[in-house]
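This protein record is not my work; I was only asked to verify it. The record follows directly below this note.
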Amino acid sequence: MHRILIIEDDERVSELIKRGLEEQGYEITLAYDGLTGKKLALQYDFDLIITDIVLPKMDGLDVCKEISQTRSIPIIMLTALGTTDDKVEGFDAGADDYLVKPFEMRELLARIRALLKRNNKTASPSGNILKYAGLEMNLQTRVVKRNDTEIDLTPKEFNLLQYMLQNPARVLSRAEIAEKVWNTHFDTGTNFIDVYINYLRRKIDKDFNKKLIHTKTGMGFILKAES
C-alpha cells in the first residue's frame, strides 16, 4: 500500500482528496500547515507528497525545497496559480508535477500513478558520467561542467540536460520532453519547456563560442555541436 502525505490547509479540499485516494487503496496522512507537513515528510516514509503552495506557517515552495534537499520523494503541487512562471517556480523548488485547481480526481490519480511508476523503476544508468562536446555531467555527484567550468543547475534544469545528453544529436519534441523529463503529459498551452530551454542556453552556451542547444522550428530542440 502506497503512503501519501497531503499538505493542504483547506480541510474540505483535503478531506475530498483523502476520501478519493483512500477509495483507490492509498494510505493517507493529512497536514494542515506547511511546517507540520515538512516535519512529517522528513520523519516518516511516504511514497508521494501532495502539497498546496499557499499554506500557513510555511509556504509550499519552501516545504518542497527543504524536503527535496534531504529526501527523494515525488511531489505534486496543487494550486490555483497556473501561469508559466508559477509552474517554473514550483519545478525549481523540486516539484515533480503541478496540478491547477480546480482539477478532476481522475487527473490527479493519473499523475500519482505516473510518478509512483517512475519512482519504482530500479534501472540505473550504464555509467555515472555523461559526456558530449566538452559538456560533462556526473549523475552521482550531480556536478555539471563544460570545458572544466562548473555550471550550477536547478533540479529540473539538471533533469532536462540529462535527457538531452542521453539523446544527443536527436531532435526532441516538446511532447517527448514533457513526458520523459516531467514524467507526464502537460498542458501544451503553456511554454514552460521553452522557458527551461532558455535557462539552459544561458548557463550552457552563453559564455562559449560553440553553441550546443539548438531550436528546430516546428519540431523541437536538439543537443548538437554545430560548427
Observations:
- The CA atoms of residues 67 and 102 lie 25 Å apart.
